[in-house]
Design goal:
- This protein is of the alpha/beta class and about 375 residues long.
- The chain folds into 2 domains: about 30 residues; about 325 residues, Metal-dependent hydrolases (TIM Barrel, Alpha-Beta Barrel), CATH 3.20.20.
- It has 15 helices and 12 strands.
- The strands form 4 sheets. The chain has a 5-stranded parallel β-sheet with strand order 6-7-8-11-12. Strands 1-3-5 form a 3-stranded parallel β-sheet.
- The radius of gyration is 24 Å and the shape is globular.
C-alpha cells in the first residue's frame, strides 16, 4: 500500500497545525526579544535613588474593612454591588468567603484584618475606616442610593478588640445630628473622619458645612477625603471629588488628607493631581497619602508625587487595603523600574502589607514617607522585625 501523500491531495491537518505552531513560536520569540530590547533601552530604575528602609514599624492610615450585615454588624452592601464582579474580588482579597462571613459574622473580617497586620514584618498597625452612606432630603440614610455602609459603631467596637487596629470614623455632614456624631466619634477613639464625596454625594465646597468643619477643628479630627476619579464602586459623581472644592475646609483650619494624591481624574481640563499640587503653597494644613498609587491604572502618579518638591513633608503612607491584595497591584507592571529579580522577590511576599511596602520602597518611596503616618497621628510603634 502506498503511504506517500500525493501532491494533489490536501496535507494532513496535523501538519498544518504544526506549521502554525512553529510560526507562532517564532512570532512570540521575536516579540519577547523586542520587548527585552525595549526594556533595556528604556529601563530607568526607581523613581528616586533607593534609600535605607525605615527601620520602625509603619502605620497604615488608609485601610478598609467590609461587611454584609452578618452577626448584627449593621453593615450592608447594595444588591447592585453584590452582583458586580468587584464584590467577589474584594471578599477574596480579605481572605474570607461569603459563606464564612454569613456563618461567623462580619466580625470575622476585622479578625482577619488584625491577623494580617500582626503577621506583617513592616506594618504594625492600621486605621480602619468606617463608611457612611448617602442621605436623603430628610437627612436619613438613603438605602437605595448607598452602595456600601460600614457603621461607626461596628468599626469602633471591633477595633477596640485589637491593639493593632484604630478607629477611623465616617460621618456624612448632611445628617441632622452630624455634630453629635463627630463628638461621639472623638469620644470613642476616632483618629480621623473619612469621606468619599463622589459616592456619598457630599459637596465639600457647600457653605452649609461650615459648622461641621469648625467642629472638626475644635475636636482636632483630620479629614481624609477621596479626590480624583472613583472606580471602586458601580457609580460616582466625580466632579464632587475635585480637589479645588476642598478650599473651604482648608481655609477654616481643617487638617486635611487627600487620598491617593488625587491621582486619576480631571476637572476644567486640568488633572486633579495638578490641581491638588497647585494648592499646597496656600494651605500648610493640606496633606495627601500614597495609598493605591501602585495600581495598574495609576502608572506614573507615584513618580509624580514623590518627586514633586511641593509635596515634600506632606505625603503619608497608606495601603488602601484590600485593593493591594488584588491583581490591580503587581510588581510585574513595572518592568522599566524594577529588575526581574526584584519583581520575582516582591511578588513572592505572602503578606499583602509587606508586599505593598516592598514594592513602594523598590520604586523609590523614601523612608520619611513610611514613618510619617505614625508621627502624624502620634502613634508609637516599635522597630521593624529583623529579616
Amino acid at each position: 500500500m502506498d503511504t506517500n501523500t500525493k501532491p494533489d491531495e490536501p496535507r494532513p491537518a496535523r501538519g498544518r497545525w504544526r506549521r502554525w505552531g512553529v510560526r507562532l513560536a517564532k512570532w512570540l520569540g521575536l516579540c519577547i526579544l523586542l520587548l527585552l530590547g525595549l526594556r533595556e533601552a528604556f529601563f530607568s530604575g526607581p523613581y528616586l535613588p533607593l534609600a535605607k528602609p525605615h527601620d520602625g514599624m509603619i502605620l497604615d492610615m488608609h485601610c478598609h474593612v467590609a461587611g454584609i450585615g452578618a452577626g448584627g454588624s449593621g453593615c450592608f452592601v447594595s444588591r447592585e454591588l453584590r452582583n458586580n464582579f468587584r464584590f467577589n474580588i474584594y471578599m477574596k482579597a480579605f481572605g474570607v468567603t461569603l459563606a464564612e462571613a454569613q456563618e461567623q459574622g462580619d466580625q470575622l473580617l476585622m479578625e482577619r484584618l488584625a491577623k494580617g497586620i500582626d503577621e506583617s514584618k513592616r506594618v504594625g498597625a492600621a486605621i480602619v475606616l468606617a463608611m457612611d452612606g448617602v442621605m436623603d432630603a430628610n437627612g436619613r440614610l438613603d438605602h437605595a442610593r448607598t452602595e456600601f455602609y460600614i457603621p461607626n459603631e461596628f468599626v469602633a467596637a471591633e477595633a477596640a478588640k485589637y491593639p493593632n487596629l484604630y478607629f477611623g470614623a465616617s460621618i456624612n455632614p448632611h445628617r441632622p445630628d452630624a455634630l453629635e456624631r463627630l463628638q461621639w466619634a472623638r469620644d470613642n477613639g476616632a483618629l480621623l473622619v473619612k469621606w468619599l464625596p463622589s459616592v456619598q454625594f457630599i459637596d465639600p465646597a457647600d457653605p452649609a458645612l461650615e459648622p461641621f468643619y469648625r467642629k472638626m477643628v475644635a475636636l482636632d479630627l483630620p479629614l481624609l477625603t477621596h479626590a480624583g476619579q472613583e472606580r471602586s464602586f458601580t457609580h460616582a459623581q466625580d466632579e464632587l471629588a475635585d480637589p479645588v472644592r476642598l478650599k473651604l475646609p482648608l481655609s477654616l483650619g481643617v487638617k486635611l488628607i487627600v487620598a491617593h494624591a488625587a491621582s486619576t481624574g480631571e476637572n476644567e481640563g486640568q488633572e486633579d493631581i495638578d490641581r491638588l499640587i497647585g494648592m499646597l503653597d496656600d494651605y500648610p494644613n493640606l496633606y495627601t497619602d500614597i495609598s493605591s498609587m501602585t495600581q495598574v491604572n495609576k502608572l506614573g502618579y507615584l513618580r509624580q508625587a514623590i518627586t514633586e518638591e511641593r509635596l515634600e513633608g506632606r505625603l503619608l503612607y497608606g495601603s488602601d487595603f484590600p485593593l493591594i491584595n488584588t491583581m490591580a497591584v503587581s510588581p510585574w507592571v513595572y518592568p522599566l523600574n524594577l529588575t526581574r529579580k526584584q519583581m520575582q522577590s516582591i511578588s513572592a511576599i505572602g503578606n499583602p502589607w509587606d508586599r505593598d511596602v516592598a514594592l513602594k520602597e523598590a520604586l523609590g518611596v523614601p523612608p520619611d514617607i513610611m514613618a510619617r503616618s505614625a508621627a502624624f497621628f502620634s502613634i508609637p510603634l516599635g522597630q521593624a522585625a529583623a529579616d
